[in-house]
Amino acid sequence: MTGSMERMDTFWQPLADLKARIDAAGGFVNAHAHFDRAYSVLTEDFDSHRVESHLHEKWKLVDEYKERTQTEGFFAHIWMALRAQADQGVKHSLSFIDVDPLVGTKALDAAVKARELAARELHMRFLIASQTLKGVVEPEARRIFEENLDRIDVIGGLPGADRGRESEHLDVLLEAVKKSGKRAHIHVDQLNSPQEKETELLCRKIMKWGVEGKVTAVHSISVASHKREYRNQVYQMARDAGLSFVACPSAWIDHRRSDEMQPVHNAVTPVDELIPAGLTVALGTDNIADVYKPYSDGNMMVELRMILESCHFYDRNALVHMATAAGKHVLGVS
Ligand SMILES: [Zn+2]
Questions:
Q1: d(CA 187, ligand 1 centre) in Å
Q2: Residue 179 C-alpha to ligand 1 middle, in angstroms?
Q3: What is residue 334's predicted lDDT score, i.e. its pLDDT?
Q4: In angstroms, what is the span from residue 131 Cα to ligand 1's centroid?
Q5: In 3-state terms, what secondary structure has residue 28?
Q6: In whole angstroms, how far apart are CA 115 and each of 119, 145, 334?
Q7: How far is the CA of 160 from the centre of ligand 1 (A)?
Q8: 9 pLDDT above the threshold of 70
Q9: Distance (Å) from CA 208 to ligand 1 centroid
Q10: Taking CA atoms, which of 38, 150, 239, 330 is between 20 and 30 Å from 95?
Q11: Separation of 43 CA from ligand 1 center, angstroms?
């Protein structure tokens, strides 16, 4: 025990220790974001209560921003986000970038330019995943997705965007994984509801297409709202499918109060079960200061703190791994 006259900064602090070990391990990997919309929220979005809309409504609300914003504008948003990430020691990052019939390639053109500049000026490896907010089943949406495959690093997916046709959505994406050899990151089980079984569906589709080890599930929060027996079945399937995960705790910790009966848990990716089950989980910020998450500032330490607290997961080595090596694994970089 040190004496009372000892300076405060000489005491060991677990959180500061985590940050030092993350820096020593090569810096944070932000494995999931939407930089093309970062810092796009406006005072009008608060005044009109748009920030209070349901997730599925917000998918449409960003259309106005996408219509009025040109490539230079998207670049400014992406670049500001990348600089903010670099300032906190992020050395690798992956952002979904909207590529759909509405926005065309305006955001992607900006992201491609930012990818080159990030390597040169920020010494950061920045990877681009396609965000298919208009799905990939309708012919025009599918054409734009396929035409731009060569310009993206990771195939991105959002089965909920092809509501009622989620199975077809996954088939299109995983066929592209099979043909291109690229990895896929797919938003699944976001609503924290036992009505959702998208992680299970994703595992089945991975095995159907024979793309084991190539796919990462973003969120998989609803898994935690199912009973233990089902959760364990999903973890076994995820191991068989080589499915990895990205947790973005601030993205859904604000889940609305509901009277739906569920096992008691916080509305985050269940890392306290996934990691002991031998599964890889990386960390991401998801949306930053946009209509989805107006107060999110993209701080990786905040995300790390939030996941360790909300899952009561204190394993120091595993937390450093989640913030660094696991991120590189899901990005497919060494
Ligand atoms: Zn996302």
A1: 6
A2: 24
A3: 83
A4: 8
A5: strand
A6: 7, 19, 17
A7: 12
A8: no
A9: 25
A10: 239
A11: 23
What tokens were used for 49?
């209560």
Instruction: Please list, in sequence order, all residues whose beta carbon lies within 8 angstroms of the beta carbon of residue 275, skipping any fewer than 6 positions away.
Output: 281, 313, 315, 318, 322
End-to-end alpha carbon distance in the chain = 42
Residue found by looking up tokens 């986000």 in the block:
81
CA 331 to ligand 1 centroid distance, Å: 15
Give the Å distance between the CA of 97 and the centre of ligand 1. Answer: 10
Residues belonging to the chain? 334
Q: How many CA atoms lie within 13 A of 332 on its CB side?
A: 16
Centre of ligand 1 to C-alpha 10, Å, is 39
pLDDT at 114: 98
In this structure, the number of other CB atoms found within 10 A of the CB of residue 68 comes to 8
Distance 186 CA to ligand 1 centre (A): 9
Separation of CA 287 and ligand 1 centre (Å): 7
Please write the tens of the pLDDT for every residue from 242-296. 999 999 999 999 999 999 999 999 999 999 999 999 999 999 999 999 999 999 9
**Cβ atoms of residues 215 and 329 within 8 Å:** no
Task: Identify the residue whose tokens are 């394993």.
Answer: 315
Q: Taking a C-beta distance cutoff of 8 angstroms, is the pair 22, 324 a contact?
A: yes
Q: What is the pLDDT of residue 10?
A: 84
In the three-class reduction of DSSP (H, G, I as helix; E, B as strand; rest coil), residue 191 is classed as coil
Task: Find, among 126, 121, 116, the residue nearest to 96 by Cα.
Answer: 126
Q: In sequence order, what E strands does the chain have?
A: 28-30, 90-98, 125-131, 154-157, 183-188, 215-219, 244-247, 281-283
- Domain locations in the chain as residue ranges: 26-331
Distance 311 CA to ligand 1 centre (A): 20
Distance 139 CA to ligand 1 centre (A): 23
**Could you tell me the pTM of the whole model?**
0.95
* Type of residue numbered 112: V
